[in-house]
């Protein structure tokens, strides 16, 4: 019986790992652009307006999201999806094919009607370019839309214009507590700022989906970092491109954000002789993939810390389009919501992609977080994300997804260390079968071996452990659980290692 249970669990684990892959290539249709049929265009716009109005009703922003309101939101969303499907079914198939051909839209093969409607709306808009053609912007380069950037499981539209995304950079140092607004256009300037390329660390903190630079967690992390290290800290705000439209559009916008950062990064390296090894990138959700693109554009960065990197459109994809341990000298990843997005509404990458991947409480769902309304929403494919407003989806996934940066920030502020222990195969299987809920009970962190444990936080890269790890937390703030015996053992071993290296 035990053997059968383990076999089933292992099968589930393999299923989760390979559930989302981007091997399928999107079908590209092109011809000369001409005027879109008015009737079909009007229908698409009407459907989009209906979805927008229904989506606005899903979340009441004046109250805390409760289980009851989540169920209400799921009902409203399903009504929107049903309306879209029923309305689109009234459009003759030949009309849809005609509009695709005329608009030269990137419509993945076998895309359903909801996805087609969303992409058609975006292709029709003169602001968003035309279909599968590479879109180019002065000094930022071109953004191709062929494989692997677009595929069956990566049905992203073209990115918005840089002026629409409106990337902003704000510099902070220990001596400069007020934000210095970096000038990015038409030419870059950090004159009269406290930027010093000789500081040991230059940090970029990048938010993700449905957020902006004014989010409290970013300022909290910045303050905690500066308390521990003398650094140049840049907060990256791309809120205008992350809070509008749907997830698919926002995910596409990450490429333009990264291009802006690459342009700025090359400037401070070339004009101020900043050493790339001193750069520490920190990104949450889609911000983790922005960090990846940033690092790919300027090889040789010292460290990249990813807070629960976004899953939809990235899981299983080639490393050219997602976070990977080859992006920087050291890449550490904190996983807090690695359930499959379809159908379980998880939002973080499932597979390990760093030198160190820490699965907090098993990584699947965090203690105290409400399970999203998966029974009511009934996602069937990534296509369904095209009709969910950004703020609605953001609220559904926020709890476990956001714990990633909360844990890291707490590791800097408190006199307590989150020790992560190397994961064994049986532990990983148990986490999948129990949806991670047994992890806080099973973890035996007091039996750490020096090469099999790492601390969560600024010093992760200084310890020799590499691979997949798991760490337990308390159910409520403060999340860190003290273990003085482990602290003493690990720090003594660390000191011994340092002393040997100096001999």
TrEMBL record:
Gene Ontology molecular functions: triacylglycerol lipase activity
GO biological processes: lipid catabolic process
Gene Ontology cellular component terms for the protein in this record: extracellular space
A Pfam family recorded for this sequence: Lipase
UniProt entry tagged with the keyword tRNA processing: no
Key words of the record: Disulfide bond, Secreted, Signal
Gene3D superfamilies: alpha/beta hydrolase (3.40.50.1820)
Origin: domain of life: Eukaryota
Annotated signal peptide: 1-24
Domain Lipase: 135-423
Subcellular location: Secreted
UniProt xrefs under InterPro entries: AB_hydrolase_fold, Lipase, Lipase_N, Lipase_panc, TAG_lipase
Family indicated by similarity: Belongs to the AB hydrolase superfamily. Lipase family.
Protein name: Inactive pancreatic lipase-related protein 1-like
Origin species: Sipha flava (yellow sugarcane aphid)
């Amino acid at each position: 019986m035990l053997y059968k249970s383990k076999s089933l669990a292992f099968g589930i684990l393999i299923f989760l790992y390979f559930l989302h892959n981007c091997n399928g290539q999107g079908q590209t249709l092109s011809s000369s652009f001409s005027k879109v049929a008015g009737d079909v265009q009007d229908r698409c716009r009407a459907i989009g307006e209906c979805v927008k109005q229904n989506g606005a009703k899903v979340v009441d922003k004046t109250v805390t999201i409760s289980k009851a309101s989540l169920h209400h939101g799921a009902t409203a969303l399903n009504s929107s999806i049903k309306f879209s499907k029923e309305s689109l079914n009234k459009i003759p198939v030949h009309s849809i094919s005609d509009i695709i051909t005329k608009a030269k839209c990137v419509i993945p093969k076998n895309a359903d009607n909801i996805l087609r409607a969303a992409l058609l709306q975006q292709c029709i808009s003169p602001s968003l370019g035309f279909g599968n053609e590479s879109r180019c912007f002065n000094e930022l380069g071109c953004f191709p839309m062929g494989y692997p950037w677009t595929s069956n499981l990566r049905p992203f539209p073209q990115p918005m214009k840089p002026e629409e995304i409106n990337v902003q950079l704000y510099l902070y140092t220990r001596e400069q507590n007020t934000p210095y607004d970096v000038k990015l256009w038409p030419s870059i300037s950090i004159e009269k700022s406290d930027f010093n390329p000789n500081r040991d660390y230059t940090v970029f903190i990048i938010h993700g989906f449905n957020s902006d630079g004014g989010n409290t967690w970013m300022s909290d992390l910045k303050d905690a970092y500066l308390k521990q290290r003398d650094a140049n800290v840049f907060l990256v705000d791309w809120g205008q491109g992350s809070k509008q439209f749907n997830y698919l559009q926002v995910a596409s916008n990450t490429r333009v954000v990264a291009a802006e950062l690459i342009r700025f990064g090359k400037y401070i390296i070339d004009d101020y002789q900043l050493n790339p090894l001193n750069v520490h990138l920190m990104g949450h959700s889609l911000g983790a993939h922005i960090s990846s693109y940033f690092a790919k554009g300027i090889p040789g960065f010292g460290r990249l810390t990813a807070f629960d990197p976004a899953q939809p459109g990235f899981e299983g994809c080639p490393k050219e389009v997602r976070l990977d341990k080859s992006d920087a000298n050291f890449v550490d990843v904190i996983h807090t919501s690695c359930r499959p997005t379809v159908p379980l509404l998880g939002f973080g990458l499932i597979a390990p992609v760093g030198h160190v991947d820490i699965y907090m409480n098993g990584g699947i769902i965090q203690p105290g977080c409400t399970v999203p309304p998966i029974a009511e929403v009934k996602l069937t494919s990534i296509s369904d994300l095209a009709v969910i407003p950004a703020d609605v989806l953001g609220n559904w996934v926020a709890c476990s997804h956001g714990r990633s940066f909360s844990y890291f920030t707490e590791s800097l502020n408190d006199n307590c260390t989150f020790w992560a222990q190397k994961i064994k195969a049986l532990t990983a299987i148990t986490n999948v079968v129990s949806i991670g809920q047994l992890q806080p009970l099973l973890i035996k962190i007091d039996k750490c071996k020096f090469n099999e444990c790492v601390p969560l936080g600024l010093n992760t890269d200084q310890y020799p452990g590499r691979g997949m790890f798991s760490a337990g937390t308390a159910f409520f703030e403060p999340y860190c659980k003290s273990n003085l015996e482990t602290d003493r053992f690990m720090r003594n071993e660390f000191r011994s290692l340092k002393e040997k290296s100096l001999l």
